[in-house]
Every structure is written in structure tokens, then in C-alpha cells.
Amino acid sequence: MKTTHKLITCLLSCNVIAALTSCSGFLDEHTPQGTLSEEQVKSSENAENMVVSAYAIFTTAEDINSSFSMWNFDVRSDDAYKGGNGTNDGDVFHQLEVQQGVLTTNWNISDMWQRLYDCISRVNGAMALLNACDDSFAPKQQRLAEMRFLRAYAHFQLKRLYKHIPFVVDENMTSEEYYTLSNRTYTNDGGWQLIIDDLTQAYNTLPTEQAEKGRPTKAAAAALLAKAYLYKAYRQEDAATNQVTSVNAQDLQRVIEFTNPSLYANYGLESDLHNNFRPEEQYENGVESIWAIQYSRNDGSTYGNLNWSFGLIPPNIPGVLDGGCDFYKPSQNLVNAFRTGDDGLPLLDSYNAKDYDLTTDNADPRLFLTVGIPGLPYMFNRNFMMDKSETWSRSRGVYGYNVSLKQNVDPALIDQYLIKGSYWASPMNRIVLRYADVLLMRAEAYAQLGQTTEAIQLVNRLRSRAAGSTQMIGSYPHLYGVKIHVANYRGSYTKEEALRIVKMERRLELAMEYERFFDLVRWGDAATVLNKYFAEEIPHCAIYSNAFFTADKDEYLPIPLQAMSDSQGRYTQNAGNW
User: DSSP assignment of 239-278, as one string?
Assistant: First the structure.
């Protein structure tokens, strides 16, 4: 059902995989490189196959229980409850959610570490083969740039999760050499710079357009560069803590450089936010999607290259979505954040003073595109009206009755865009970098630099788009009595006010897109925001009665025990009493 211009990553034959994994590097098969013959190494066909194998791992190694999207790890934020059947259902993520009892031996701590380094292994294996190819192989430099982008992306995710990581940027490294690395070779700032170095090389080589969707473009490299510089800007210079000690103006200027509109001539905002989260072909790889993980069906295999990573999120609608697991449920705090005042602006100081009421409170329309709420139709389908029953909460209310919408598909599209296997899956892409994020990064850099007028103008672009995002919910005021009211900011603002506005807008626009926890850590706000959230959320989610966020520990996952053991003393554990 997808076009042939997609980079379909699931069609490698078993023979090709078998041939390639023998040179895939230090962790994937624990096999030293150089086991192929010289002719095989120099084969451009083998190099291209290995490139496809590197792309493929981001889908074939996807895990429903520990997704590359990081939704499972975003349950640490104030956006979402873990959900599921109760605290014992995915208990290791419950421990992360309440920040109690997390162990270095927990499977989810080591699983993501292992799989992201497997991704880097595939990439480095592809780069080794590409480097061995004759320069007459025309796409050689472009493919190397693509692999540098993927390697930077994997390192970026690892660094956001674990902070102090070993960097594997030598594609000729053997498995034995890998185990001589230290996770403290580079300072925190130096680690971000290493990621930036890979992305800079990719940016300098990648084309502005790619015929095969899924391959990164120059704009994708620019967007990820901007993101890396934004993280780097919030310096954590004290090696013994995770405190933000300064915000670097030079790095912020690079964010502005790599979010320059001239770099994104082929991209922009969708007319309606919801278009970014629709599975139909006409909406995928749309104008706002800068780089996305590509999924498909009807491509020659039983289930196609489907996205199983959201399989735990659908609700369990009897006779319809049987087997839905009801994880990643929007918090009441998030719902309340969408409340607006009579002026149509967010209630920055008081949004959580009361719970949002469907028929009396004003709300930003993005609420109804992000959260399924009792009293409204699920996935905009009036045949599935949400209420406070077990249908909409497997935990019988422990995690409330709200449901995430951005990862789910209308049940009317079962067998077309919603497919039942072991769990539910969809061919809908997962957007990794979208243009709205570029605008928000630019706004944040401007705000931090005191250029508040420019920051607010960018925020208002998103608010104007929000006001027009009503194709699915235009009838809600008439049918359900909701009060949709969103307006732009007017007037002038101080630096502190502009930063608060940008932070709130980032939360509203990217809600349930797995960025919130990482944002709180990057800003240095995690302990303050989350401990306040735990205290205020207890009436809605009693599991938080024992929750507490410990500063200088809970910002990052611990280095897995197995990795610490394998390093034979070369790794230093992250801050905190692990």
C-alpha cells in the first residue's frame, strides 16, 4: 500500500542478512570485522545491502515492550501514566514512573542500551564496506553521510537516556577493541560535540531531496544538528551532578543557524495538526515530516513492515480491539494544561488549579487531537463513545480513563490500516523530526538569547495552526458542548516570560510525542516539576503516593550492570546511589 519510493527495509533475504551479519561489528554478532573476502568487501552490491540492513534495524529490532520511539520511557514525565492492567503490568516501567526500585539489572535498562548499540554496529558495518568500495561507486559519499546520520541519531538517543556513554565512531573497530572503551572518555559537552561532528559531515553531503522516503535529507541533518546543539547548550559542567550550570549562547546561535527557514524550503506546517498522525498514504511523508521511520504493508510478507511499537497503546474495546493493552495514558495534569482563559491563552500559573471540565472550560483544540476523553468519540468515530468504564481503562480507573490518540488508528480501519497479529499494528509512519519541532527549537533559542519578539512570533505560528486544526473536531462544540478557544500572544514579554511561554507551547504541541521528560531534564526542571506533579496528581493516580524524583540521580538511567561488568572497570556509573 506504500509507494515504491519508500525505503522498504523488510525485504532483505535471509541469505543477504546471513552474509552481512558476519561483518556487522562489535555487538550485533560479536564477530570481528574482516571476515568477508576482499572481492566481497569491495562489492558495491554488498555495501548497498548492508546500508539497507542498517536502516532495517530501526524497524526489525523495534520492541513492543521497549520502543525506539521512547514512549515507554516518557512515563517518567508529567504527560502520561504508564497504564496497562495495573502496577505489576510492565512493573519495571512502573518503577521508572514513580522513580522507586529501579535496578541496574532491570531488563528495560539493558535492553535499550543493547539494541541502540546494535543499531550503531549495523551502521558501522555498512560504513566499513562503503569505505572499501572503489570511488567509482557513485552513491558512496551520500551513503556514508546517511550512515553518519543514523549513527548520530542512535548516539543521540543513548546520550539522552544514559548521559555517560561510550562512543563508537570508528567503523573499523573490532569487538575486542569495543570492550576497551570508557564511558568517560569525553565530557558531557564533548559527547554532544561528537554527535554534532557526525551530523555536520552528514549535513555537508546529504542532498536536499531523496527519491526514497526514509533516507535523511540535508534538512533532516539540520534539524537533528539543531537538536543536538540545543541539548549541548544546557551545560552540565559539574561531573558529579546532573545540574544545568549554564546556558551557552554560542550553541544557541548554532540552533538558530540550523533552524533557518531557508534550510527547510521543502517543509512547513500541515494545515491541520492531525494530518501528522493519520495512516492513509496521502498523509504520510507530508510537508511537516522531515524524517520518519517508514512502515508499510502489502509488500510481499505476511504482515508487511508494520509498526508494532505502539501495539501496547490501543484500548481494549470488547469485540473490536480485543487484546488492546491500554498503556501510555494521558495524565490529568496534561489534560488540564490545555485549558485556556477568556483570552484564549494557556493558564501558565493556574492550569492545574482545577480539573478540566468538558462543557464549562475553554480548551486549546489540540487537546481533542491528543487525548481521548470520556464523553467524546474515540478516534473521532461516534460509534465508539468514551466513558468511565473498563472499556477505556484496563486498570479499572487506576490510571484514569483518558486514552492517547496520536499513536492510535480509527477502529473503522481494521484490516486496512489497523492489523491484528500478536498485538495491534499499523503501517503508519513514526515521525522523528517534524517542522513544528524546528520552530519550537528556534523559538527556545531566541527566548534564551533575549530575542523575545522573534520567539513569540514563532509560538504564534503554532497557535494559529492550532486554531485551524478542526477538520476532525469542528462539530464538537455543537454535539458535545466543548468550548474551543485558542488565541495568539500579543504585547511584549521579558526573557523569563518568553521562556515560560515557549516551554508551555512545546508541551502542548508535542504532547504524547515522547519529548517531555527529556525536555524537563535538559532545562534542569525535572526535580521541581515532577515532585510538584506527583503531589498534585495523587487524587487522580494514587500510585504517586510513594513517588519521588531524586535530583542528580533520576535524570538518567543507570548504566546497565552487564555493561558495567563487561567493561572490566572502564565504565563509571552515573550519579546517584545505584
Answer: TT-----EE-HHHHHHHHHHT-GGGGTT----SSGGGGG-
Q: How far apart are CA 515 and CA 395, in angstroms?
A: 25
What distance in Å separates the CA atoms of residue 370 and residue 303, rounded to the nearest whole number? Answer: 27
CA 103 to chain centre: 24
Predicted confidence at residue 238, as pLDDT, reads: 92
Q: Three-state SS across 161-221?
A: HHCCCCCCCCCCCCHHHHCCCCCCCCCHHHHHHHHHHHHHHHHHHCCCCCCCECECCHHHH
* Grid cell at residue 366: 489540540
Cβ contact 87:395 at 8 Å = no
Distance CA 556, CA 395 (A): 28
Cβ pair 152, 199 in contact under 8 A = yes
Instruction: Note the Cα 449 to chain centre separation in Å.
Output: 26
Q: What percent of the chain has pLDDT over 90?
A: 86
pLDDT grade for 13, boundaries at 50, 70 and 90: very low
CA distances from 64 to 68, 299, 306, 312, 475 (A): 9, 21, 12, 7, 35
- The mean pLDDT of 185-191, rounded to a whole number, is 96
pLDDT, tens only, 506-559: 999 999 999 999 999 999 999 999 999 999 999 999 999 999 999 999 999 999
Bridge partners, residue 418, by sequence: 414
pLDDT of amino acid 37:
56
**Sequence-ordered list of residues with C-beta below 8 angstroms from that of 87, at least 6 positions apart, any chain:** 94, 398, 543
Q: Is the overall model pTM greater than 0.70, yes or no?
A: yes
H/E stretch holding 118 reads helix 107-132
